[in-house]
Amino acid sequence: MSKIVFIGGGNMASCLIGGMLANGFSKRDILVGEPGESARQRIESTHGVNSTDDNLSAASAAEIIVLAVKPQILGAVAMSLAPALSHQPTIISIAAGIPVSALQNWLGEGLKIVRAMPNTPAMVQTGATGLFASQSLAPEEKNIVEKMFGAVGYTCWVENEALIDAVTAVSGSGPAYFFLVYEAMQQVGQELGLDSKTATQLTLHTALGAARLALDADTSPSELRQQVTSPGGTTQAAVESFQDQGLEEIFRTAMTSAVDRAKQMSTDFAS
């Protein structure tokens, strides 16, 4: 029996498999179900794991099934898998916006379902993943799930499914917020006279350094900001400008919009 089967062999599946193999998982315990021949060849050559175009056969040999296909086609894929799930494997879905209720409707009642919300930095093993389980997992099952996603970054569990929407707003969509800030800083840096490469590298290394400093520090982000903000200095001028223009409220509105959209997507898929 293959312990872990990925249904879908795209980028996120590939990065999870790569992280898992780098952290002690065996190639023999991983199988990828993927209809596309080129995708199967790519994942086999990259990771050395087996793949198949027969999802039903793959699912019937799994202890854990990771649904790693796009939300738009997950319903059809899940319903096609339902006849192969009588052995009650644990199901992990990484599809945004699809609630447990929809997955149960497609796959069948009684299955243990984990919703995972990873983000794109998982591709470089610095991701952040929120996890929710529809029912209690056995300790060994929970441990395997944590190791799978911990192989590509930070993981945490949330107590109720609604909080997955908050995870989506903070970390799932979060990389795009920082990329938008990077774009703005790079552009303004060029307007101030720096060449494109210098503006880009200064911005990215400043972001990397700030993140590492915040992760390693025992102090709050507010205290770290105050440490670098000298009274009457350049940083104070910039920070006060951000605050005067309502930066916190801008983020509150944006992230609330992400939550609202996630709720709407869940409603659409559940209906």
Features:
15% strand; Rossmann fold; alpha/beta; 2 domains; 271 residues; single chain; eight-stranded mixed β-sheet; ProC C-terminal domain-like fold
Structure at a glance:
The protein folds into two domains: about 160 residues, NAD(P)-binding Rossmann-like Domain (Rossmann fold, 3-Layer(aba) Sandwich), CATH 3.40.50.720; about 90 residues, ProC C-terminal domain-like (ProC C-terminal domain-like fold, Orthogonal Bundle).
> Helical region count?
12
Spans of at least 5 consecutive residues with low confidence: none
- Under CATH, the homologous superfamily of the largest domain reads NAD(P)-binding Rossmann-like Domain
- Mean pLDDT comes to 94
Q: If you compute it from the alpha carbons, what radius of gyration comes out, rounded to the nearest whole angstrom? A: 21 Å
Q: Major sheet: size, sense and barrel closure?
A: 8 strands, mixed
Across the major sheet, the strand order is: 3-2-1-4-5-6-7-8
Tally the structural domains: 2
Tell me what portion of residues adopts beta-strand conformation.
5-15%
Class from helix and strand fractions? alpha/beta
Helix and strand pattern: EHEHEHEHEHEEHEHHHHHH
Q: Class of the largest domain in CATH?
A: Alpha Beta
Number of β-strand runs: 8
What is the terminal-to-terminal distance? 35 Å
Shape category? elongated
Account of the protein in words:
- The chain is of the alpha/beta class and about 270 residues long.
- The protein has two domains: about 1-165, Rossmann fold; about 175-265, Orthogonal Bundle (ProC C-terminal domain-like fold), CATH 1.10.3730.10.
- About 55% of the residues lie in helices and about 15% in strands.
- It contains twelve helices and eight strands.
- It has helices at about 10-20, 35-45, 55-60, 70-80, 100-105, 140-150, 165-170, 175-190, 195-215, 220-230, 235-245, 245-270; strands spanning about 1-5, 30-35, 50, 60-65, 90-95, 115, 125-135, 155.
- It has an eight-stranded mixed sheet with strand order 3-2-1-4-5-6-7-8, with helices on both faces.
- Strand 1 (about 1-5), helix 1 (about 10-20) and strand 2 form a beta-alpha-beta unit.
